[in-house]
Structure of Carbohydrate porin:
Amino acid sequence: MARSPAPTFRRTAFLFAMAGCLAGEHGARAASTPLVTDILPSGVPLPVPAPSFVRPPEDASTELLGNAWGARDWLDRKGVRINIQDVEELWGLLSGGMHPGPTYDGMTAMALTLDTGRAFGLRDGLLNISALQIRGRSLTGERLGSLNAVSGYDAGRSTRLFELWYGQGFFGNRLDIRAGTIDLDTEFLVSQNASFFLNASFGWPLSTSSNLYSGGPSWPFSAMGVRVKWTPTYPLVLMGAVTDDNPTRGPFYSDISPAQRDPSGTFFSTAGGTLFIAEVQLWLDAAERIAGKDAPALPGTWKIGALYDSGRFPDQRYDSQGGLLASPDSTGTPLYHRGNWLAYAVLDQMIWRAEKGSGKTINVFARATVNDGTRNRFSSEVQAGLTFDELLPGRPDDTIGVAWGTGFYERRAIENAYDATRLGTSLAGPLRPEHHVELTYQAAVTPYLILQPDFQYFWNIGGTSRNPDTGRPIANGIVMGLNMTTTF
């Protein structure tokens, strides 16, 4: 989910990305070095959509410690880069949900990269290692009860290794291969504009986080695997990865959270099934195609992709003996099926620019997923939204965004809910798609400090009409939050 350290970086990234576009006819280069904020799951300002990204030079002013008394320059000459980011969040459930009230969560991340070319002469090689310290409590689990977490940082408390991989570029970095423990949602199934929002569903969506073991290799988990990225010609990027499908080695259903099963992030599991994912990206300048080369550029990235998991997945209605899971006489163990799949499409498109070269823009994103209707609780999902850059007078580095998302239950999960109501084994009532709307404003206080006040509204919380424990109706939820992200 490529990301940048501060809103100021968005315009700089655009200029360098466009430079890459112009150079594309003479040999586009796929970026092999992750951006500083690749380690953050949500609430991050992003470069303008483009599959090829030319990395801007280091700017010490975008980090609180600056040049760290010369240490950064010294390390850079050795090929070493160290980045630290801290996120602090305050959330409050104002009404609705289960238990209105406040919570706090936070995360500190450290990433180290070693450029093997500078270090010992192996060109186009990169070693990457990162770690996370996650703290606080979950507003989603303890107060709201929604399917979609209010924040990407609303995760199990732990101090853990995140990613550990080696990447090697070939043919002028047109071909880029990584091997090690990989977080797929850094690059696959991601919308650049959607990642600006704080709700976790705008990063790694509900249709993967709920339908895969431990949510799949997604923040804060990674899995053993290999990723290949190839740019055969500038407008086109082809990516694929093969990883273990179960980063924490747990069963599909468990009372123990994934973070508790692997609190250190060092299981390096190769058990279970294998996850295959592939994606095609196409860069387009909509303005050039519609109004000619003299029109202000309106870049966009269009993506289609699919994944297949060879593991075993539970039926949503029938138990291991072919009876109803909702029946009082059920074995309680679902019938398991071999294999699972998901297909998706992602659109990131700039739709308006004040004038040629201007940073005043409006961008739209949309993402849709569809998957197997037998072994998944959610059969499809949709998110869409708008971001508005530099539109506030006197605030050239700020961004405003509004987005909506929902996930649709698959047929057998709906029938199981009806079975439970009919047989008296649940008070939750019929399943309904949970919807959420987010309105957010990101303010660049300094180049290294971002404040992001956030408003979210949920209805059909938890996808049910009533609290499954009390049988009482669940009121729509109103959530307010504040995210503070500091880059050191």
User: Anything to note?
Assistant: The domain at 7-487 is CATH 2.40.160.180 (Porin). Residues 1-31 have pLDDT under 50 and may be disordered. The two ends are 21 Å apart (CA to CA). The chain has one domain: 7-487.
